[in-house]
Amino acid sequence: AQLRYSVPEDCQPGSSVGDLAKDLGVELRSLATRNLRLVSESGQRHFQVDLAAGVLLLDRRLDREALCGQSPTCSLHLQLVMENPLQLHRVEVDVLDVNDNAPQFPKPEVVLEITEVANPGTRLPLEVAEDPDMGSNSISTYELSPSEHFALSINVRGDGVKMPEIVLEKALDREKVAVHHLTLTALDGGNPVKYGTAKVTIHVLDANDNPPVCDPPISKVHLEENVPVGTLVTKLNVTDLDEGPNREVEYSFKVSNNVPGKFTKLFSLDPRTGEIRTKAPLDYEESSAYEIAVRARDKGSPAMEGHCHLRVELIDINDNSPEIVLTSLSSPVQEDATPGTVIALIGVKDSDSGDNGQVHLQIAKVLPFKLVSSFKEHFSLVTNGPLDREKASGYNITVRAVDSGSPQRATQKTFYLRIADVNDNAPNFSSPFDTAHVQENSLPGTSVFSMSASDPDEGSNAKLSYSILDSRMQDVPISTYFRIDQDNGTIYTVRALDYEQDKVFQVPVEVKDAGSPVLSSTAVVHVFVLDENDNAPTIVYPSVPKGSAFHQTIPTLAEPGYLVTKIVAVDADSGHNAWLSYQLQETAEALPFRVERRSGEIRVAQALRESEDAHRLVVEVRDNGTPSLSASVIIVISPEENSVQDFAKSLDLPRSSPEDSNLTLYLIISLVSISLVSCVMFAVVAARCL
To answer: Which chain regions cross the lipid bilayer (predicted)?
Structure first.
């Protein structure tokens, strides 16, 4: 529980403060048994408990002013402790103020001076009396002893304190009364009233009755902020109608507690001439104007003073360059960003004012960006056209800020904007059509051709993979002939190729990137199979079983040049691998026959003898490949008697000549060349049509 009592500060020790037993609801006889104790929170003992009567007594005389000073309330806090059971009670005792202090002046005697020429209404401030009591017991009013020339005026400050002043009501004449003796009385509002007095002595001084006068009293000066130190600001024009020392004026800055004297650090004042000059650099951005108060005091007795007020207004000079602040930058930006996408937020500021502080922001060179004014001194950098990372992977953007001063001042700031790639470019082959050659019968896995594709994108958008599109060659999937390395684009054979079966393949290749969405392109590789001499010549005529011989009869009288027969052979290969030559195998004895090397014609080389036995010839047909392959046939020629008609026919047979053999060779070469060129042209035309 908490108990509250009050006691006047002038009560005698032993006075009753409150009935504890009654207020706590405890029987008197239990107070001692419960060991009632009193504890002061301040540590000082001002009270005691009478256990027999159960009352709280004053232990010593209280002095409210010593305990609580000028506090409007004064309370002492106690704690009562009782045991069995343990209880704690809080006691608060309010100490009531009594009028036990009289007002008192700081000095018992006050000496004032006033010139004899002081005008009625002149005020002489007095010191305030002090009374430590509070409320109505404090100072209530002041009284001044009767005087013909002076009266008392009381002003009340904002905090309620009364301020006494002596007011001159009638002009003075020092020659009549040089000193005035007055009594100032301070009275409090207590009951009974207490008071304090102070003697006031006023000396009337001889006339220095003209103060210095500023002309004009208030002036204004305009000054550029960049003037050099020591520049004359103004010279004060002050006059004093007195003569002699009373006319001599001394100048000083007037600084009050309420008005900071910062201008004293920037301006100097000549105390003799009144010239005001700059003594430190001036900065319009720090302060655009200064109020200077100057006191002009003469050397009279008493000294009189006048006051001059000067306002120095600075003229702004364009001495500050604009500042560029990059508030935010979104880098990288996607290359497919739409026009108007915000890239950066830029702020500008200029400490100058007026036109000197008006800043224009621009991009230093032509770029696909523009500046948009968001609000004053804030801009947004936005895209102003399409971006293409493949043409420019980034931009060094230089922003230039220029003010409107004269001369202009400029600042620039450069920052780098990276362009992020998007998959907007499909892979491209170096050529939509390529030609490759591979030897027939090459082992599976033989490298045929390396495709080359490029993608101007970067990262995964430029990661390429190759594949062969589904296509058929004579109803057989092309993938059974070739495969491709998906990473490097190299085409390999899957099986051995046969020129005699397929001479050219069209392999469609697709390349894809790894972007999203996936982009691709295709190309066609024409793979020409190169012939290999893997087929031996085949004898078409005469056609005889292997190991058998072909029998041919001729007239006995056949003359040289007589055409016996002609060997006809073919070779499945092409080109020079199919160029055939015929020759007789050498024998131990000379044979009366010869074979044409290119045509395969067997003719009589020399006249035959009568009753000549049959001749056995082995004709070998050999191609022109490397290594050369051959085939042979056995011809058995038997001379016999024939009719004249047959003999005549044999004479009519054309005879071969070396020129005829060469012509045949040239015709064969021409025919083969024309055939090859026709095949190539047909393949190219067909590929382009596809």
So the answer is: 663-687
